[in-house]
Amino acid sequence: MPVKMVAIFGASTVLWILFAASQAFKIEISPEYRTIAQIGDSMSLTCSTTGCEAPSFSWRTQIDSPLSGKVKTEGAKSVLTMDPVSFENEHSYLCTATCGSGKLERGIQVDIYSLPKDPEIQFSGLLEVGKPVVVKCLAPDVYPVDRLELDLFKGDHLMKSQEFLEEMAKKSLETKSLEVTFTPVIEDTGKVLVCRAKLHIDQIDSKPEERQTVKELQVYTSPTNTNISVHPSTRLQEGGAVTMTCSSEGLPAPEIFWRKKSDNGVLQLLSGNATLTLIAMRMEDSGIYVCEGVNLIGRDSSEVELVVEEKPFRVDISPGSQVAAQVGDSLVLTCAAVGCDSPSISWRTQTESPLSGAVRSEGAKSTLTLSSVSFENEHSYLCTVTCLQRTLEKRIQVKVYSFPEDPEIEMSGPLVHGRPVSVNCTVPDVYPFDHLEIELLKGETTLMNKHFLEEMGTKSLETKSLEMTFIPTTEDTGKVLVCLAKLHSGEMESELKQRQSTQTLYVNVAPSETTIWVSPSPVLEEGSPVNLTCSSDGFPAPQILWSRQLDNGELQPLSENTTLTFMSTKLEDSGVYVCEGINQAGISRKSVDLIIQVSQKDIQLTVFPSKSVKEGDTVIISCTCGNVPETWIILKKKAKTGDMVLKSVDGSYTIRKAQLQDAGVYECESKTEVGSQLRSLTLDVKGRENNRDYFSPELLALYCASSLVIPAIGMIVYFARKANMKGSYSLVEAQKSKV
Questions:
Q1: Which of 220, 212, 210 is nearest to 131 (CA)?
Q2: β-pair partners for 349
Q3: Which of 171, 190, 519, 586 is spaced 20 to 30 A from 497 at the CA atom?
Q4: What CATH architecture applies to the domain 25-113?
């Protein structure tokens, strides 16, 4: 075989070995090692291989129990599905994969539990003040029960907690409970009972499975003191009317039921209102009427006997003894005589006011038509029927109401987090407003409820409103404000009239945490660039406004960008710059002082008349710097024991009679925030001759020159100040030399 072919064959063999090694037979199972499932749920275990084109799979439990599931194998994956999970699935499952002569196996532990329902709260009876009651907290269909914990709370108070650790775990769903006996008091009304069930499954997850049930307490007292009042009398004639009013005490307020006793003692239900009005009474209406106050705890009753005396005919009136009509609608009242062939029928109001309607009579029937109901029609209308020598009257009460539009919701301003806002809920053109109730809700929570029962009803359409103040928070955004108006009809109708309006809340957050960053620094040399950057927190995101504060305190707007940029600063750019974060909720303000300085010019340190003088001469040392303020110039005399700061006037220091100790090094330093400069000179003072008075023409000339130079220097300083060229330093009291 040629050498080249041998080399190719050898290389192919190496590649095949490497390929076979990269495709090693492996097995994986998901979930890994351990999982948990609730009884009744569906769960799948997946076994998959790599490195084998056509593996075969088999599933079994570690104790060779039935799988209790369905196996589906496709390619290199096999799935065991348990649907639904039951006690039979609580095993260690093994998946075996075979590829040729190779066999691999993986296992997974499946644990099960059951906590399918919220716990139940059961009472042994209704909660009656002063009577003990047993409360049961019950958790149904639990497994395993030895990991169950039951807690019963009243409000934040733990009434009882119970664990079931001592019970042996059984392969069954069990119902467990705890019981507490307590005696309700009136203050328990509105409190809540909380039954909480926890199933601790520590092996899988430290957080327990938990369910709870909440029940609000309603405490009751049985009805008592049931009383009846009758108007005008318990004895009346046929066709007459009577009003009976019943009251009863209890908690909750007892419902009132009127019944009439029949001849066989059976009670016939008449009404569920506190007031029972009977009109057009007949003979058969005579009897015993029973008023009963009823709530969930008990009942209490009282009775009265009515006697109706006979008369030969009766009068029927429709649509009933009471009718409600809206302002502007039409209404027809009908009066008919029964038992009389040729009656005489007339209409009138009980207060003898005008009828304000059209009357039409035919035979034994008469109608009164009110074409457009108004306040003038709110009367008791009487239909008078005369038949032979007897006269009967029937009354129909017309109640007028107005409730034409939905309520309106108005706010005192935009909603701002943490800022009180007034909400006004207005109901227009209402009558009678003493029957009106307005309720303001946020979501399902009632914020305020107002009745107008205490107000006197007037004959007019009036606009009524409910106003309240609340403090909105960001959590209120998206909630719905509901204004619900109810017009209670009383005895006019059984149906409640109501209208409502809604408004979705959007809560703003006033700007805060306004911050300014200055880059590179708030103190700069003239011509330097600077960026002033501002940020402010709020909702909606605040708008940024840059302004400059003028000398009179007013703000001059400059920019609405986040960053205010000066490409090349000028001296006149110095000043206070104000950043404002602005949104609908308010304004947050921050300011920064920007200082622009002119770079220093060289300082000049001079001595007059000369650096070398005689003892007794007058010497003037002056330090000037054209653009540095006097307060930033320091004049010193250097000494070994320490520098002495000289008290200068307009940058000049005068030695009236020079002494030998005045000789030395004098130094001038100019300091600014952008740098400093130093200048120095040496003064030499020579001593006088000892045996003669010393006075020379040169000294006289020096004195004369000094008298001219000092005023000249004063004038120069004056004009320099006029030109903003101050360069001298106004020094504080200097320390005296220790020499």
A1: 220
A2: 381
A3: 190
A4: Sandwich (2.60)
pLDDT over 80 at 416, yes or no = yes
Q: pLDDT tens-digit profile of 656-680? A: 888 888 888 888 887 766 667 788 8
What is the average pLDDT across 220-232?
A: 91
622: number of Cβ within 10 Å = 23
Structural element, H or E, at residue 3:
helix 3-22
Of 643 and 154, the structure prediction assigns the larger pLDDT to 154
In sequence order, the β-bridge partners of residue 539 are 509
DSSP letter assigned to residue 650: T
Question: Which positions ≥6 away from 286 have C-beta within 8 Å?
Answer: 306, 307, 308
Task: Give strand pairing partners of 271.
Answer: 258
Instruction: Assign 642 a pLDDT band (cuts: 50, 70, 90).
Output: confident
405: three-class secondary structure by DSSP: coil
Q: Is the peptide bond before 404 cis (omega within 30 degrees of 0)?
A: no
Domains 222-309 and 509-597 share a fold: yes
**CA 144 from chain center: how many Å?**
42
The whole-angstrom separation of Cα 491 and Cα 276 is 10
Dist. CA 91–CA 219, nearest whole Å: 50
CA distance 143 to 26: 37
Superfamily of domain 222-309: Immunoglobulins (2.60.40.10)
β partners of residue 334: 318, 367
Give the position of tokens 């006149």. 572
CATH superfamily, domain 314-401, is Immunoglobulins (2.60.40.10)
Dump the DSSP string for 335-392.
EEEES-SS-EEEEEETT-----SEEEEETTEEEEEESS--GGG-SEEEEEEEETTEEE
Pairwise CA distance, residues 62 & 36, whole Å: 17
The span from the CA of 167 to the CA of 150, in Å, is: 14
Exposed e or buried b per residue across 210-246, where buried means at least 16 C-beta atoms within 10 angstroms of its C-beta? eeebeeebebbbbbeebebebeeeeebebbbbbebbb
CB 204 within 8 A of CB 217: no
| Nearest CA-CA partner of 629 in 671, 573, 578 | 671
Considering the domain delimited by 120-216, tell me its CATH architecture.
Sandwich (2.60)
CB 623 within 8 A of CB 605: yes
Q: Kindly tell me the sign of the dihedral angle through the C-alpha atoms of 376, 377, 379, 385.
A: positive
d(C-alpha 562, C-alpha 20), whole Å: 64
Query: Is the pLDDT assigned to residue 6 strictly greater than 70?
Result: no
Q: How far apart are alpha carbons 305 and 576 in whole angstroms?
A: 93
Which element (helix H / strand E) includes 159?
strand 157-163
Closest CA relative to residue 365, chosen from 389, 353, 388, 383:
383
Closest residue by Cα to residue 106 from 91, 87, 89, 92: 92
Answer whether 95's CB lies under 8 Å from 78's CB: yes
| Gap between the Cα atoms of 441 and 468, Å rounded | 11
In angstroms, the CA 306 to CA 734 distance is: 117
- 140 upstream amide cis, omega within 30 of 0: no
Beta strands 586-597 and 322-326: pairing type?
Answer: unpaired
- Candidate CATH numbers 2.60.40.10, 3.40.50.12780, 3.30.1660.10, 3.40.190.10; the one for domain 509-597: 2.60.40.10
**Using CA atoms, how far apart are residues 370 and 328, in angstroms rounded to an integer?**
10
